Amino acid sequence: ATIPSYTFFDSPNIISLYLGNSTPATLKGEFYENFSEDIKDKATLYVPKGSEEAYRKANIWKEFAKIEGYSDKEAQTVKDLADRLADVEDVIELPAKTDQGLDVTYTIEEGKTDVATLSGNKLTVTGAGEVKVTATQAGNDQYAAFSKTITIATSFDYSWLQAPAISVEGNTVKVVGTDKPEEFEITIDGVKGFDLSGKTGDAIKLEATNDTQKIRLIIKR
Hints:
5% of the residues lie in helices and 38% in strands. By secondary structure, it is mainly β.
């Protein structure tokens, strides 16, 4: 397409100019024959996403200091995808679809199998540390592509603590190793002050708090 000279010449107050073609239209003559000179630096040229470089190389269009891509597709979201803490041996089921209903693909940071492994949308925490997981969705005719990276971090690792470093009495955990042992009140399954003595199973996950600190523990029988 060709745009006649002086089409925008009498519009010195342009601050945004949206173009709908991915292929830059031909402008004849020089910049000053098409636009007021003072909009070079103050106006933003918005072009279809992916065509930014073509406009940055095109005659006259390239003289705009600010050229940005835009998409008229709807954005995708995954509202339940966020950084989080996890315990060793946890299996986390990540959202299989975007909120718009399209399938999500996950990849995991390389070299972190000692922290977590990934199978489809299920992440298994294997050890202490941090690992990054990236969710992607290619988009379609209606929705724009989606990409987001989150960090999964394990809780503090207290596996090094050995009896008598931890003692459990009723609903209280005592963490020793200092001149004055710290006492923490147990919370299990959201119940504060849980009496641990009646809890069954080979391993118990719990939170224990005092006035200033919180620790997360796995106690194995």
